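Hi R.,

Here are the chain sequences for the assembly we discussed:
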Amino acid sequence: MKKLGFVALAVALAAPVYAETWKIDPVHTNVIFKVQHFGAGKFIGRFNETSGTINWDDQDLSKSKIEVEVKVDSVDTHDAKRDGHLKSPDFFDAKQFPTIAFTSTKVEKDGDKFKVTGDLKLHGETHPVTTGFEITGKSTKGDRVGGEAIFKIKRTEWGMKKMVGNDGVGDEVELTIGIEATKG
Amino acid sequence: VDPLWVLLGVAVPALLAGTVLLAKGRAAGSFALALAVLAGVLITFRESLSSEVAARLAFVALAATPVGAIPRPWIRLPLLAVVSALAPAIVLYAVPHETLSVGQKLGWGTLEAAIVAASAISIDLWAARWQSFTVPISLWGFASGGSAAVLLGHYLGGALLAGAVAAGLGALAVLSWWRPSPERLQGAVPVVATVLAGVWLCSYHFADLPAPSGFLLGLAPLGVWVGELTKRRWLTPIALLVPVAVAIALSAHANPSYSGE
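And here is the predicted structure of the full complex:
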């Protein structure tokens, strides 16, 4: 009986772990936005402060959940004055709406990639978005994983309706979220 | 930014206020400036009425309108002090708890309401004593200069709302010269003083108007006492407008301009 119990414990320990919790590494995670400026170039900016967790279950994706939070105050366009204007009520209104948050509601397999649906809270408004999500790799030790999501939103749908168009900044914004996460 | 909307944001308030100001009396002055503010809010924040805190300053204008119409100072001035607390309350309510705790909001709110009340009452008494064309012209300079400081603080919406108030004051100045009416001028003061103070507060709490510029704009109306106390009346507009010029310079220094959004 004692022998049987030992064998059962050994089997349990050897079994693969399917559900894992990962913590977003803010230093190696990038949130980049691309938007048309004055109807001309595609302007690129980024947010420097990101946090969040990923609960990933390979065997049952319905149990997987991705949560990402971005500090609006960390917007960085390589021009402090422009960053100030972007934080003002003319754009992000960073002091009234200090965070951008994404919480997934559904993760599905989509070929060799994934499809993630969730709620995006931006500028005080929450609307659903769906994005492709790709696991970009895993470290040799297996303690670090990478993923990337690229999707487009219309900022006016989140109430950011000022200076839209060819005399200002485009409505459609492409967001790239390049995540690196460590075992949490 | 579409220049047509900027033009409308100034022209419509001026025309509406100017039309109402053809009538004389305190109520005309008060209602005309409130109409200018409402038009400015609706045009400037037409797409962001629900989220823009500065758009809620329309309620300040509505609350200050009947106050401006009250002729008796011992009734009007205490009510003006009460209405002065409205703009800080609206602005601070929207500041998240992560930024300012309830205690900090109470502290800021008390200080800001006291400054707004002192400034509004000072302008009110000044307008009642002077009853001249100099008052609306000086207030126009105050509103326009403050609008420039706000614009330099990266807040176009706030600058345009102050611009709408300036447009209403411009109409008031023209009408004060053409068809003088001291009561009409005095009636406009409560709306002007409380709404402009609200714009400065929004620009400090939500945009990049530097604190010294905000304090200078908030305290500038107290400068009207310089002329009264020194018996040199010519000093009064200077004492009102010099702090505004300094506020613009400080805002420009803190936020050098850049091209485009």
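Chain B touches chain A through 31 residues (CB under 8 Å). Chain B has twelve helices and no strands.

Let me know if anything looks off.

Best,
T.
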